[in-house]
């Protein structure tokens, strides 16, 4: 083959190297769209009532909750892009520092900024339209406390993703990277938002009090030294497959039962499972602190190195 033909083949075969980058861009676009939809909910609930929500001026809460649930689903969809970009980069041998930086920037938008914006706006609207007395004067106003909670989450996400980039640059990806991954933290926030738009009527304090505090705690868990199991590694490992099939079968049965019983999809089941995952890290850490022993994971019995989840 002549040199000209070889150069033509190389140029024609490079296009697929851009697929991981396009998937990463899809991740960030999901977060960007969710933020725009949050602003739409704010416009419908606040601006149309001249900045106040008094008697006779209550917004369509069902519509507002639907918008926030749609934003949360966009974040969940972004997790698919986030999983596929790394997988395709490895399969196509297109991994690079540029891709790692892009992935972290996209994760910062989708799993850092977007959940904080969703919680801040949804909590503010629920407080204004609810029966509780959240609009207090003084320094410790409700909106400032919500801003502080979401700010903690945002700052911790930025610190975690920056640390992930440092580990990648220094080729420490095989080291034990502690703390809950940013997609897992975002999923925990979004599961509450999605469950709030369901047939299950959540108390007012869940959205106005619990969710901002929970969001701040998730931010702290992201930068903590508490180890979390790698779910992808757990699913793919050949250790104790029968037990894993039983667990997955039970989860599927719970999802089907919820669909038949409530007709709304497995929203409660998903929120419960994500909450169990979030709590698994602190529980294992507390168990080790009390007994001095680790609770072994199935994937710890493997000798294969794995990539770190950011």
Give a quick precis of the structure:
With 310 residues, the protein is mainly alpha-helical. It has 10 helices and no strands.
Describe the fold and architecture:
By secondary structure, this protein is mostly helical. It has a domain at 13-227: Four Helix Bundle (Hemerythrin (Met), subunit A). It has helices at residues 3-13, 19-45, 61-91, 97-129, 142-169, 182-196, 204-222, 231-236, 241-262, 267-291. Helix 2 packs antiparallel against helix 3 (61-91), helix 4 packs antiparallel against helix 5 (142-169) and helix 5 (142-169) runs parallel beside helix 7 (204-222). The chain starts with a helix and ends in a 19-residue tail after the last helix. The relative contact order is 0.11.
What are the key terms here?
disordered C terminus, 310 residues, 10 helices, mainly alpha, 70% helix, Four Helix Bundle (Hemerythrin (Met), subunit A)
Query: What would CATH call the class of the domain at 13-227?
Result: Mainly Alpha
Number of strands: 0
- How much is the radius of gyration in Å? 22 Å
CATH fold label of the domain at 13-227: Four Helix Bundle (Hemerythrin (Met), subunit A)
* Mean pLDDT level: 77
CATH architecture field of the domain at 13-227: Up-down Bundle
* Low-pLDDT ranges: 6-10, 50-56, 299-308
Distance between the termini: 44 Å
Main sheet record:
none
Residue fraction in strands = under 5%
Task: Tell me, briefly, the overall form.
Answer: globular
What is the helix content? Answer: over 70%
- Number of helical elements: 10
- Order of H and E elements: HHHHHHHHHH
- Class based on secondary structure composition and strand pairing: mainly alpha
């Amino acid at each position: 083959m002549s040199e000209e033909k070889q150069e033509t083949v190389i140029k024609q075969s490079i296009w697929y190297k851009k697929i991981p980058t396009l998937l990463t861009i899809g991740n960030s676009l999901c977060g960007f769209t969710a933020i725009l939809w949050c602003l739409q909910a704010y416009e419908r609930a606040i601006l149309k009532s001249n900045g106040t929500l008094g008697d006779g001026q209550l917004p369509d809460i069902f519509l507002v909750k639907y918008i926030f649930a749609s934003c949360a689903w966009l974040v969940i969809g972004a997790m698919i892009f986030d999983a596929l970009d790394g997988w395709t980069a490895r399969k196509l041998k297109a991994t690079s520092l540029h891709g790692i930086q892009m992935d972290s920037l996209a994760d910062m938008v989708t799993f850092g900024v977007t959940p904080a914006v969703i919680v801040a706006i949804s909590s503010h609207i629920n407080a204004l339209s609810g029966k509780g007395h959240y609009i207090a004067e003084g320094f410790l106003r409700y909106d400032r406390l919500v801003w502080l909670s979401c700010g903690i989450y945002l700052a911790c996400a930025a610190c975690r993703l920056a640390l992930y980039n440092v580990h990648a640059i220094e080729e420490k990806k095989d080291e034990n990277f502690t703390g809950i991954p940013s997609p897992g933290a975002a999923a925990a926030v979004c599961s509450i938002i999605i469950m709030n738009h369901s047939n299950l009527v959540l108390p007012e304090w869940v959205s106005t009090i619990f969710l901002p505090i929970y969001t701040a705690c998730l931010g702290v868990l992201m930068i903590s030294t508490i180890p979390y199991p790698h779910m992808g590694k757990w699913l793919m490992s050949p250790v104790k497959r029968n037990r894993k099939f039983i667990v997955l079968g039970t989860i599927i049965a719970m999802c089907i039962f919820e669909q038949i019983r409530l007709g709304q999809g497995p929203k409660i089941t998903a929120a419960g499972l994500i909450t169990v995952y979030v709590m698994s890290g602190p529980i294992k850490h507390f168990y080790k602190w009390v007994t001095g022993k680790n609770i072994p994971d199935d994937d710890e019995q493997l000798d294969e190195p794995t990539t770190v989840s950011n």
